[in-house]
Amino acid sequence: MTGLILKDLMYLRRTAKVLLLLLAFYFVLFAVAGDDSASGIFSSVTVLLTMLLSVNAFAYDEAAKWSVYERSLPVAKSGVVLARYSLGVGVATCLTLISFLAELVVLRGISPDNLAALWASWSIALLFCAILFPLMYKYGTQKARMALMIVVLLPTLGLILLQKANLPLPSVSTVLLLIRFLPLAAVAVVLISFQVSCRIFRNKED
């Protein structure tokens, strides 16, 4: 399994220049804004880049016909899936830490609200990975991307419908409570997603 993780890290090294340029751009944008309201910049980057890198890792494997070689490896199918989940969790965690350090440098500290935003972005990135990975294993990158777009748009559609129906939006205290428990929920969903992906991958390969 270590070799599979190293393979994914080699993929990340191929995209390192683009990744560093994107992070530098957003850091400059964040530094120019220089206030608490700009903290959402890095929070959104964590989610977007985690999804982008994870999808591209699957796409590279498909383009290289990696699954043909993968079947011959002396690695348990659960180990193959675990290596890919390790990539998603590792990328989300590293990007969250980078965001945390950026806010410490630019804002000379971090407020509880900004810290909650970072926790929320890390959790949302994991939730999207938990939704995305089983779809990737089941349908491949092209169909899974379309399904992910629908999943991403659903919360926005839900908020629009709430506003149209004149239903009360959640209070600030309710939102903060949800954010507090969101990391635990994200970890639980990832564990369930891992089991689902293992079952899909096992059935696909048998």
TrEMBL record:
Would I find Transmembrane helix among this entry's keywords? yes
Show the Pfam families listed in the entry: ABC2_membrane_5 (PF13346)
Q: Which keywords accompany this UniProt record?
A: Membrane, Transmembrane, Transmembrane helix
Record keyword Ligase present: no
User: Which residues are listed as membrane-spanning?
Assistant: 16-34, 40-60, 81-110, 116-137, 144-162, 174-194
Name of the protein? ABC-2 transporter permease
- Its source organism is Caproicibacter fermentans
